[in-house]
Amino acid sequence: GTAALIWNEIIREKVTNFIMNQSKEQRILNFVLQNAVRGDPCSVVDTIDKYCSQKEWAMNVGNEKGLILDKTVEEANPSVALELGTYCGYSAVRISRLLKAGARLLTVEFNPEFAAIAKQMIEFAGVQDKVKLLEGPSEEIIPQLKKKYEVDTLDFVFLDHWKDRYTPDTILLQECNLLRKGSVLLADNIIFPGAPDFLKYVRKSPHFQCTNYPSHLEYMQVEDAMEKAVFLG
Question: Residues at the annotated binding site?
Answer without folding.
Answer: 61, 91, 109, 160, 163, 188-189, 218
